[in-house]
């Protein structure tokens, strides 16, 4: 088995199209994560408000809520190579206002919205491209590599590149680097083979009649939802992925406030929370490779959900516990700071491991189960599902955290995670028995 897997990996590394899109993914995802990290730091420093951070992330969600499913339909009707080239180029251009107009709050919000608007077309195109450039038997390994570098790019962009670049060289230097990374990704995607849409859908890209295009889009959306109703395992896999991305969005909005409220440190020290989480993701991926053959995907997902819920409760308990110390030490943790840093770091580490145990099996289920002719539409639905799951929490979590602190928000998030665990338990059990 190991020899077969090694042969598959060697075959993938000789696939020039796969290497091009893989390299483009690493660069573009690292750049996108660096943008998010830097903008969160910038907004937190400018406002010292959880509400402002929530609004920043909310602006990244609104475009997907409005246009996400339509973007998936368009991907199924357009050359995917063209979509990848254009979206990377446009995201590079979208960062330029930060260099021209400076690092103001308005500019940060505008750039975040522009990058998110373009990304809703990039994500389904990238996900739908992989099965078209690798053999079916190589798909699992290809997805594993993409998932590993996807999460590794989070570690590299969100935790390493953005904080270090901002601290040492300033925001302007980082924006220039990010724009260049998007540009290189666009060039790499241009080397991919053409991926024309099916002949029966060619009339859509010619834009003959707006009414006919609208009808086709509506039919495509209807087909995607009909497919999801008939495949509960795929539907729940999408729910798990949407939940994890929602938790990342909420954590990203509240992390600067958590560091400020609980640890009494500046916003740029948010790395003490996100770094262990990123390391945990990488460790989780490695652990999955070791125990993946001994545990079903359904059980891995269920275990991950339970650990995430417990980690959120532990983070919630940190704040009232810390207040006991700070009330006695004049508003600082003093000698207790190393203990709280260790507690938070270990909790975030387990959160990252559990995130990998949920996301990787769920995404693999999607890639294996989806037909090629509907893949773009389903990933478009996934984008919207992620956005809807994130939209309402982000409307409330910032104001709630500003009024009552971050602890109640983490408790509420834990309750949602346990609810999803229980709601999908029957489908997971059925899947593990097959």
Strand and helix layout:
Layout (H helix, E strand, L loop, with lengths): L1 H12 L2 H32 L2 H27 L3 H21 L4 H29 L5 H31 L1 H20 L11 H4 L4 H21 L1 H30 L9 H21 L5 H32 L8 H33 L2 H33 L1 H18 L1 H9 L1
Summed up:
The protein is an all-alpha fold and 434 residues long. The protein is built from 16 helices and no strands.
Which band does the percent of strand residues land in?
under 5%
Instruction: Let me know the average pLDDT.
Output: 79
Distance N to C terminus:
21 Å
CATH architecture: Up-down Bundle
Radius of gyration: 21 Å
Order of helices and strands: HHHHHHHHHHHHHHHH
Low-confidence stretches: 1-5, 200-214
* Distinct helical segment count: 16
CATH topology-level name: Growth Hormone, Chain: A
The counted number of beta strands is 0
* Overall 3D shape: globular
Biggest sheet character: none
Overall structural class, as computed from helix and strand content, comes to: mainly alpha
Number of domains: 1
Name the CATH class: Mainly Alpha
Q: Helical residue percent? A: over 70%
The CATH H-level homologous superfamily? MFS general substrate transporter like domains
Could you describe the 3D structure shown?
The longest helix has 33 residues, at 337-369. This protein is mostly helical and 434 residues long. It has helices at 2-13, 16-47, 50-76, 80-100, 105-133, 139-169, 171-190, 202-205, 210-230, 232-261, 271-291, 297-328, 337-369, 372-404, 406-423, 425-433. The protein is built from 16 helices and no strands. It has one domain: MFS general substrate transporter like domains (Growth Hormone, Chain: A).
